[in-house]
Design brief:
This protein is an all-alpha fold. α2 runs parallel beside α5, α3 packs antiparallel against α6 and α13 packs parallel to α16.
């Protein structure tokens, strides 16, 4: 399956899951607002993600190149056998780590949320102990989803969000008013189990019983473990950024963590639909084109990935930044989510949206480095980004509140992207001319930003729906006109997609 057709399939399924994800967040916001209860739940999730980030996410990324190369060589069963060994190893490690986290939850919550009062901290500890149950489930889900994508089966990974979000919507909307925020924690566990069940059929097409094993000498597992240190650092750095954001936000005000989370979820919906969708289809292709004789093909894939993603995301980032408050009001502004929560969340979303194109470029560069087996690039990128994020949070949050936290996130993304792209270009000559690929797109984006700001000023006092619709339409039209002249290659790339899909390519 080609990159475009795989991306189209993944996009369609992911769209449904992301739409339900937004419904989930809307329901949570309406039932609980942006207050201490949601803050406590998010800190509990953060502790669980710390455990997952150190093992599950890293191991899942390491599995895709191993399985993709095995499948390309006609040894798909060997690749799945390596995934089964990884399932067993990660299950043991996460079980031991989860027990330690369960015992030490009070101390860890005190570190992760120093601004919590005693009551909120106690709730966070209780929720942490519930959501830790999901660690092994999510680890297995990530590994099986990665194996399925490497085998060319993209649907299960894309559709998993449907089942999870249905469970979370029911937990928040039906059980939340009765059992409080505890319903979210148990909904998270049950939804994680549903996600795992969805992944099993894709792997069973190759191996009848994809149960975990403890074959620690499996060659594929050893290859994963060689990549693991670099991936661990990258995953840990990303989780540290999130944990520091929430720790600092806990000292700003009640509900600050929730506001940052809801804004990030809104922006992440775009990331899920565009960046994650294309990368799910692109990553196995990158992994198969890493040999020296295919370096030109690899550069072409990188160029098309970066070019297509930025061409799509720049106008989205412009519109979301300019009308962020109106978008947040339309999406979340109901029930317990009051005007103050809308204003705070909107200010965070406006800043975070600026980083969307940067995130796309960084992800393409990082996945290319992993495909090449070079984890040092991702490590340096992650560490540089983490240092900037932590320093930025501590320096900007006291003066600018939650928008300072968002600004630190964007700045860290820029620095991490520069480090990743430079490393990929200097070590592997796998990056085309970045100014040539992205310069014209950014020029069109600047023209679109000026047009969006002017249109928004003319619509002062108009309704939220009208503002979003008009600004979006005019900005997109102006952007496409500008892109036609400033970046004709990217313009043609976007124009070719529907034609080639219709031709069945």
């Amino acid at each position: 399956m080609g990159v475009r057709r795989a991306a189209l399939l993944t996009a369609g399924l992911t769209l449904a899951g992301s739409a339900l994800g937004l419904v989930r967040d809307v329901v949570i916001a309406a039932v609980f607002g942006a207050g201490p209860a949601v803050d406590a739940f998010l800190v509990a999730q953060g502790l669980m993600n710390l455990v997952l980030g150190l093992v599950a996410g890293a191991l899942a990324k390491a599995a895709i190149p191993v399985v993709a190369r095995a499948a390309a060589a006609g040894r798909a069963a060997d690749g799945v056998a390596s995934v089964r060994a990884a399932l067993g190893l990660s299950g043991v490690v996460l079980l031991l780590g989860g027990v330690a986290m369960w015992i030490g939850a009070p101390a860890v919550v005190a570190v992760l949320a120093p601004g919590f009062d005693a009551g909120t901290a106690a709730v966070a500890v209780d929720l942490t102990r519930v959501v830790l149950v999901a660690t092994v489930l999510i680890s297995a889900t990530n590994l099986l989803a990665g194996a399925g994508q490497a085998l060319g089966r993209f649907a299960p990974a894309a559709v998993q969000g449907l089942g999870f979000n249905v469970v979370m919507i029911a937990a928040a909307g039906l059980a939340g008013p009765v059992f409080g925020v505890t319903a979210l924690a148990w909904g998270f566990v049950l939804g994680s189990a549903v996600r795992l069940v969805i992944q099993i059929p894709a792997v069973r097409a190759v191996v009848a019983r994809p149960w975990p094993t403890l074959r620690l000498r499996d060659p594929g597992l050893r290859e994963m473990l060689r990549l693991l240190p670099a991936l661990l650092v990258g995953s840990a750095a990303a989780n540290v950024n999130s944990l520091v954001d929430r720790a600092v936000a806990s000292t700003v005000s009640d509900g600050a963590i929730a506001a940052v989370n809801f804004a990030a979820r809104l922006v992440a919906t775009v990331d899920m639909l565009v960046v994650a969708t294309l990368l799910a289809a692109l990553y196995p292709r990158l992994s198969a084109a890493v040999s020296a004789e295919r370096r030109a093909e690899l550069r072409g894939l990188v160029e098309r990935g970066m070019g297509a993603l930025t061409a799509v995301l720049v106008p989205v980032a412009v519109v979301l930044s300019v009308v962020s408050t109106e978008v947040v009001s339309l999406v979340f502004g109901r029930g317990e989510f009051d005007a103050a929560a809308v204003a705070t969340t909107g200010s965070v979303a406006a800043v975070l949206a600026v980083g969307l194109p940067v995130l796309a470029v960084r992800e393409v560069a990082a996945r290319t480095a992993y495909a090449l087996g070079d984890g040092r690039i991702a490590v340096r990128s992650a560490l540089a980004a983490m240092a900037v994020n932590v320093a930025g949070d501590l320096a900007l949050a006291p003066a600018f509140g939650v928008t300072g936290i968002a600004a630190a996130t964007v700045a860290s993304g820029v620095v991490g992207t520069v480090v990743a792209v430079h490393g990929l270009a200097s070590r592997h000559q796998a990056v085309p001319s970045v100014p040539g690929t992205l310069g014209g797109v950014l020029a069109a984006g600047l023209a679109a930003a000026a047009l969006a700001a002017g249109t928004r000023a003319l619509l002062a006092g108009a309704g939220d729906t009208l503002v979003v619709a008009v600004v979006g339409l005019i900005t997109l039209t102006g952007y496409l006109v500008a892109l036609r002249f400033t970046a004709p290659r990217q313009f043609r790339l976007l124009a070719d997609v529907p034609r080639e899909v219709l031709r069945g390519r």
